[in-house]
Amino acid sequence: MKCVDDFRLRLGRHELVPIVIGGMGVDISTAELALEAARLGGIGHISDAMVPTVSDRRFKTRYVKDKLQQYKYNVANSDKRLVQFNLHQLAEATRMHVGRTMEAKRGPGLVFINCMEKLTMNAARETLRVRLRSALDAGIDGITLSAGLHLNSFALMADHPRFRDAKLGIIVSSVRALQLFLRKNARLGRLPDYVIVEGPLAGGHLGFGLDDWMKYDLAGIVDEVLAYLRQEQLAIPVIPAGGIFTGTDAVGFLERGAAAVQVATRFTVTHECGLPDHVKQHYFKAREEDIEVNGLSPTGYPMRMLKGSPGIGAGTRPNCEAYGYLLDNDGRCAYIDAYNREVARHPDARKISVKDKTCLCTHMRNFDIWTCGAYAYRLKDTSRQLPDGRWQLLSAKHVFRDYQFSKDNQIALPPPEPAAAN
Ligand SMILES: Cc1cc2nc3c(=O)[nH]c(=O)nc-3n(C[C@H](O)[C@H](O)[C@H](O)COP(=O)(O)O)c2cc1C
């Protein structure tokens, strides 16, 4: 019986352990987590979601305060068109986040950044251009394009000196999305270096409809993508993601023709993951019935999360002057509309609740939307419960190595924590 370590992912001159830790915004897949994957010979992702905010936390900068100060006069105004990001600061924050991470990289693996097109930031094209190019400037090994079709993203980088040397890939949830991407970019003479195929059991946003995601299965989509690439004689590595919970699940995909696997949920309960420790305990405790796919994200994509997420139903006033990452090119966000509707319905209420949408910037920033993969309820099978009822956090190395070496659907438990001294 094989294990993941019997396979290798070839990306150009790199030969890697075929395990990719997926991007988890906002700073849930921290630099520490990504660096550990790289140290162990695989690929880790940082995320470019809300980088100025992340930079404030990581490097004590003041981007959020300064932006809020600048646009304070607009807080009560539901028209957010004027609330623009300073592109110079956005570039600076991205270069710092990426640059410091890359300086700390050790070992044979790679660190990529996950870049979501849906973060339209009130100027979709200009802000995406700055984010992509600044990440390349700062030496990122690769960029994974996610949450969108990214039909123009390659073109935004095409004249960058690193356009052909950095590894560039895209996440798709259908063969059709991949075909569109390849067709649109044919004239640039540069294929993606890898394609991540994300199925309906993944965490974060899903590339399926709210009512039909359960009709799809990852293996079926992966087979279609592999068949299409074979037919077109395109040798692009295919990397499935979503619900790959054990090394044996991973081997199943590698034997089917996948080049690597992308995983995330199992790393949410590691020390290196950016979620606060008390939130990690909620992930451990989750039962199957505690997880739902809903339409709360203002992006319009369905999202999977724990039903107990504090951000669900909160009536937070939109924080676009400080954040504003989901504002479209007209300064609009579906949450602002939902919030204004509730305020109009309850003009005298001191506190309102918005049930159909959530202020995703605020709640992801504060770790109050607990997004997870469909198998988060199995996390309790991956660790030990301590005498006080809490679950023992894992090291990223432990989880990575478990994916790499386990066989026969086994999940290795961590060595018991030494008892606390009296
Ligand atoms: C907490 C969490 C946050 C995530 N955030 C993002 C994100 O910001 N961008 C993205 O493309 N995918 C995101 N994902 C999806 C993962 O990168 C990954 O593809 C997927 O969750 C893999 O499935 P698994 O969690 O079942 O292993 C997130 C997943 C989780 C669990």
Task: Explain what this protein looks like in three dimensions.
The protein has helices spanning 31-39, 51-59, 63-71, 87-103, 124-137, 153-157, 175-185, 218-231, 247-256, 277-285, 334-345, 360-365, 396-405, and strands at 9-11, 14-16, 19-21, 43-47, 110-116, 142-146, 167-172, 194-198, 204-205, 238-241, 261-263, 291-294, 303-306. It is α/β, with parallel strands linked by helices. The protein has one domain (4-405): Aldolase class I (TIM Barrel, Alpha-Beta Barrel). Helix 2 crosses helix 4 and helix 4 runs parallel beside helix 5 (124-137). The model has no long low-confidence stretch (mean pLDDT 97).
Task: Write the SSE topology.
Elements (H helix, E strand, L loop, with lengths): L8 E3 L2 E3 L2 E3 L9 H9 L3 E5 L3 H9 L3 H9 L15 H17 L6 E7 L7 H14 L4 E5 L6 H5 L9 E6 L2 H11 L8 E5 L5 E2 L12 H14 L6 E4 L5 H10 L4 E3 L13 H9 L5 E4 L8 E4 L27 H12 L14 H6 L30 H10 L17
Parallel strand pairs: 3-4, 3-11, 4-5, 5-6, 6-7, 7-8, 8-10
Antiparallel strand pairs: 1-2, 9-13, 12-13
The structure holds flavin mononucleotide.
Binned, the helix content reads: 25-40%
Q: In angstroms, what separates the terminal alpha carbons? A: 45 Å
Average pLDDT score:
97
CATH architecture assignment: Alpha-Beta Barrel
How many helices? The count is 13
Point out poorly predicted stretches: none
Gyration radius (Cα, Å) is 21 Å
Inertia-based shape: globular
| Number of distinct beta strands | 13
The CATH homologous superfamily is termed Aldolase class I
Q: Under the CATH scheme, which class?
A: Alpha Beta
CATH topology name, in short, is: TIM Barrel
Q: What is the spatial order of strands in the main beta sheet? A: 10-8-7-6-5-4-3-11
Structural class label: alpha/beta
Task: Provide the β-strand percentage band.
Answer: 5-15%
H/E series, N to C? EEEHEHHHEHEHEHEEHEHEHEEHHH
Name the hetero compounds present. Answer: flavin mononucleotide
Largest beta sheet, briefly?
A: 8 strands, parallel
What's the domain count?
A: 1
